[in-house]
């Protein structure tokens, strides 16, 4: 199969249809479309990766209120950045945003680079995100291929194969390049994202309102839901962990900071153990004489690559020989501004002022996070 698919329309005709539709039906008043600086567009694009607009808006507005520019973000502690990210998922995005801000301040004079290649070299910014930043904030021609655009182009051309395969992705980049105009870049880029997000949706495409319904090959075949083809799925493995809810005489809970990479990297969590003997051995070594209560009902947190079965293990401390540098006491009644792993945040919120009794069992926690 050729790496250069046959377009269904000349670029001018495609652009005209799309922009006419966008002028009437597109989204024109999103928070990052106001005062459209490279910084604001960058933050919005990172937050919008794998996350819907309606979810992102309140996070974006809180983030901008606290970190109005690159310098403010670069000067913050990672804990504060992750605290504002808590609940948004895919926490590596927040960590990379913070790292990139410091690189921008240290190596680029506090200004986002203008070139797509230089932007894509920053932590957490890929080719498509870099293109979106350049097109939307600077009005320069740059090509994007996010999930919404991939879905729309795949259906329009009935492109076979999973879009994550390199050969399929190359063909989609060629199509995206073919259709991208030299004018109205900010509007065109937003229009392409809007088309996929509001009409060419994953499960329920609204073909009757689509400006390309008459030329869409998937629609002509009645196979809209066949495209794009899904990634071959494997059964998700299940891992188990025991989370220690260790409380002192004041009702505070012991937290520990996760390593900077890996599961919940950089976030604060409850001490975790592979099994009950490992947890009990840690208590004997570090908090002898503690009262270990019966385990609470386990619940499941789902990541993109595995399911984590969490068993909370409440305990009341007698003494703690050493808290360690990566641990701290946390008062659920007066919570600190910490970045917390999502299931840990829910567990802490469920605690009574001081009890070892189990709260109502949490429902399965679903997250499309990558570990």
UniProtKB/TrEMBL annotation:
Tell me which InterPro entries the record gives.
Answer: A/G_AdeGlyc_MutY, DNA_glycosylase, HhH-GPD_domain, HhH_base_excis_C, HhH_motif, MIG/MutY, MutY_C, NUDIX_hydrolase-like_dom_sf
Catalyzed reaction equations: Hydrolyzes free adenine bases from 7,8-dihydro-8-oxoguanine:adenine mismatched double-stranded DNA, leaving an apurinic site
Name the needed cofactors.
[4Fe-4S] cluster
Q: Which GO terms describe its biological process?
A: base-excision repair; mismatch repair
Its Enzyme Commission number(s) read: 3.2.2.31
Kindly list the GO molecular function terms attached to this UniProt entry. 4 iron, 4 sulfur cluster binding; 8-oxo-7,8-dihydroguanine DNA N-glycosylase activity; adenine/guanine mispair binding; metal ion binding; oxidized purine DNA binding; purine-specific mismatch base pair DNA N-glycosylase activity
Instruction: State which residue ranges cross the membrane.
Output: none
- Report the top EC class in one word: hydrolase
What residue ranges carry the coiled-coil annotation? none
**What NCBIfam families does this protein map onto?**
mutY, PRK10880.1
Q: What does this protein do?
A: Adenine glycosylase active on G-A mispairs. MutY also corrects error-prone DNA synthesis past GO lesions which are due to the oxidatively damaged form of guanine: 7,8-dihydro-8-oxoguanine (8-oxo-dGTP).
Its recorded name reads Adenine DNA glycosylase
Native species: Halomonas shengliensis
Phylogenetic classification of the source organism: Bacteria, Pseudomonadati, Pseudomonadota, Gammaproteobacteria, Oceanospirillales
